[in-house]
Structure formats: structure tokens, C-alpha cells
Amino acid sequence: MPEVKSAKDLREHMPQTAFAFRGYNVTNLGRTRELLEHPVYGGVVQRHLRLGSQVCADLVHRTVDLEVRIREGRDTDLDSYDEAIALIMAVEIAQLKLLEEFFNIQYSRARMAIGFSLGEIAALVAGGVFALEDAMRIPIQLAADSAALAHDVTLGVLFSRGKQLSVERVHRLCMEINLEGRGVVGVSAILSPNSVLLMGQQDTLARLTPHIKSLGDGRTYLRPNEHRWPPLHSPVIWQRQISDRARHLLHTIPGGFRAPVPPVLSLVTGQLSYTETNTRELLGYWVDHPQRLWSAVEQTLALGIETLIHVGPEPNIVPATFRRLALDVEAQIKTSIGVRALSGIVRRPWLQSLLPRQAALLRATSLQQITLEDWLLEQHVR
Question: What's domain 150-237's superfamily in CATH?
Fold first, then answer.
């Protein structure tokens, strides 16, 4: 298909477009300062940041000024995790408002939306299920305990260079480590058939490492991440009853009695599961269940999505996942004959086994990805 660049292009392709909302990261400012200081966009961005600041301040009982933080270039960290939540959600909704107000691009006309971690809540706000100020309340109220659990938690990427990983076998291995009673480890996200994110307390990842050869064909590895992360979407969250408290708090916010428009693909189920009555149930599971990112990738391509728009400041994991898949597919289906082509197939046996029965994965090579903050700043508006 022709490259989608202009506002007219986007309007015409909305029925084949999906939006992807980002979650928390170690960097969360992106190009928000440029949007805030933009002579046309600035007012919209400022209003949303002030709303986020007020909601956060009311809940944490201290002064919060996201606008000043952004103008000064002060990124968030675990000590300001509550502010990061407010900032990310406010900026995501502000970006969509800019699309609508200045380019007449109606988010509701898109085919679907997905949201990684915190992004799923933002997608429900964008879809009209909750008001922004109400939806923010729950993750912000739980932020202090979520961040406190991060002090001895390590994130690691478990991946195979050979066969597919069995997620069930990974779960079992984690449970066996947990039985030792010296910290908890669990799957936090399923990134692809050959990679998962693990969250582990204390030295659980180190104790798991000697056993990972049992998960595959001897080409399975665990790569720890140097940063600290709130252990959402893992059983570590149970230690401060965060899951149960979230479910209780969900009873107290208005809304939640309509299906999102466009539909939101839940990373709890990996399906377009939200209805008029199950939002609170799914969000309850969202807290401690792994993020099924690979299911979202499969569904996005199977539904014939041609354009994927990434919402939020400096989106990373979702665009990187689709880019990596596109490169792997291209390498897998090379028609040239020789050692180079054969070695490419050998390196990706997990993908080789999927392509014949999941031909939709071939669409990854033609999927157009747009980072919304970049697109907005490239436009000429007055």
C-alpha cells in the first residue's frame, strides 16, 4: 500500500489502522517538551498535564507539577513513579486530542487499539470507558507500594535462539524456585514465541539460570536488565495485596459500563475481550497477569491492520517488537539460495514452525508504524 504520511492519508486509512499505547519505562519524557512549547499544540498539552498534576497531587498529598518537570527536562524515576503514571496517561490522551482538534482525525474510527501495561488503561480512557481523571486514580494510589517492591526485583529477558519456549514450562520452573521461600519470580510479559520477560526478587533469577537448559535445546539464555522496575503483571505484586486492593478500588470509580470504541485488545486475554460489563474484571487480572504482547502482535496482523500508530512519549517495546518481527520474517523468506539463506533459517526455527500455519505474520514486513509525537511535530499547522 502507498505510504501513509499526511493527515488526509491517515483519515482515509483509519479503518485499517490500530493505535498502540505505551506503558511505563525508565525514560518517560520523549518529545513532550516540544509539544508543550509548540505555538499551536501547547495549550492542549498544558491542559492535560495540569489535570494529571492535580489528580496526582490530590492522591499523594504533595505538590505535583508535570508541566514544570517537562520544561526542566527532569525525567521520572521510582521515587516519582506516581508522577510518571500521571504524565504518561495525560500525554497519551493529549496527543489524541491534537489529532482530533487540528487534523480532524477521529480516534474512534480506528479498527482497534492495544496498550502495553499502563497503556491498556489509557486505551480504555481514549475509548470512552472511563474519564482520564478517574482512571488515573487506581494506579496512582497503588504506585508507592508497587515502586517499593522494585527495590530487590530484577527484570530479565529469557529467550531462545532455537525452538519455541514453552511458557507453561517457564511458569513451572518459576514456581519451583518460589517453593524455596527465598523470593518470588514470575513471567511478566510474553514478548514472542521465543522470549518472555521475567520479574524476580532477590537472587531468584540467578537461581533459575542453571535450570534454563531444561526449557529448550540448549540455546536458551537469560539476560538481566540493569534497571529497577515495579513488578506489575507478576505474582510479586501479591506481597502487598496490590491485586486485591486494585479490585476493591475499581468499585469506586465512575464509568466502566460501555465497550471501548474502537475495541481494545486486552493483553490479559490476548483478545478483543472488553464488553459493557467486564472491564473491572479484566483490569483486576491486568495487575498480576502476564502481558500477552505476542498475542496482540498476532491479532493485529490477522485483522489486516496496515498502519500502527504509537501513542505516548518515546514509545519503545511495541514498535521494537514489530520491527524485530519484520526483520526476522524478511530473513526467513529470502529466496536467494546459499549458505547465508540456510543459516538464516537455522537461526530462527521458532519462526520457521509458525509461518506455514500463521501466514498473517508475513504482513509484518508491510506494516507501517508511525510514532505519533514525531508525526505531530512534522506537520505544518497554524
Answer: Malonyl-CoA ACP transacylase, ACP-binding (3.30.70.250)
